[in-house]
Amino acid sequence: MFGQLFWKECVQTAKSLIYWLIVIILILDFSTQLGNTNIKKMPERGQESYGTRVSNDRAFIMKRTLENLILEYERGSYTTYPIGFYKSVTLNEKEEARIGEILKEAAGVSEKELKEQKSMSDADIDIGPAADLTYEKFEELMDEADDILGGGSSYAADYRLANAQEEMTYEEAVEEYQFLVEKDRLSGGYARLFSDYMVIALGFIPVFLAVTRCMRDRRAKMQELIYCRRAPAWMIIVSRYLSILIMLIIPVFLLSMPLLIECVQFAKGIDITVDILAFVKYILGWLLPTIMVSSAVGMLLTELTDTALAVLIQGIWWFVSIFSAGIMRIQGGLYGWNLMPRHNTEFNYTGFQDGFSQLASNRIFYASLAVLILALTVFVYGQKRKGRFQIRGKIMADRKDKSKA
User: Fold this and answer.
1) What CA–CA distances, in Å, run from 97 to 92, 110, 113, 166?
2) Are residues 57 and 196 in the same domain?
3) Higher confidence at residue 213 or residue 242?
4) Does one domain contain both 186 and 225?
5) Of 102-111, 215-224, 279-288, which gets the smallest average pLDDT?
6) Which domain-ending residue is among 115, 135, 167?
């Protein structure tokens, strides 16, 4: 019975206009973001630039962060991104004085030296950490500065690491490339890049498919018939949920094929073996948990409210997630607990390895959360079959009235 229900749900989804609109959106997203991706070649000596990298040198991180703070202290205004949007913060006299004290303590400078730095041009500012400043104390001071500014500044934990951007040397660029072709076997790096772009759309659009599927029975006035079915609640909901996941993951797999083929063709010319299953692993491990959560939220709230409220709720979650990812998460290495972990580069294999345990925990958490939400959906659906949780309908009550007649 489960197999029949699952197949029917897949057929119904395939007949849905919303489904094909989602497929078109995914195709456009891939075409505009990754459709013209060129596989990177070995860096050559004499290039004008080899790109930038984030330094792990704590002294360099402290120096760059303090230089940025003195610049903003000089201007009297501070740039923050509390929810991803630009905001210029001007402090009151007491708060500004405290920023000055933080600078003096962190850099080990006097009031006179601080004023001298404040009067310099941006290019001439040269300030570093105090000789006795530990990194732990530096983090404590920067956290306080971020709190004073209201959060989302360059001094927050996730952002200050990105202050230490430095130009890569030829040797470093070659090392990055060797990691890509040897450790990542080429396709691994591009599978991460593919996941980075696709996760943005997949953090939101699945909710539309889940909402429209759950509301279709109400529009067709089929709820009473469905509630009377002998199939248990879990079977109906789980078959519906799995059909949504399968029908969404199929076009994602198909869209990954052009990039995989390009990796295979490029690899033949440099005599390396591509990881053929890289895209499969990343799609299932990186993208699927996000699809699961978005779909589960859509099903639960639609079954509970009989409205499209889930679109609004998931939209807000998506909006906050995409703008709170942080620069370091976009470059990889600090994935945090974001619904949509980012890694906007085919390189940085080291950052991916360093942050893998956090990424794995993130993905397991969201997959587990989706299962929990699905279980709640089964419960709600089962209760509604018994006449409870009826917000916009009175199916059970109507049935009782008819039995008395």
Assistant:
1) 9, 14, 15, 31
2) no
3) 242
4) yes
5) 215-224
6) 167
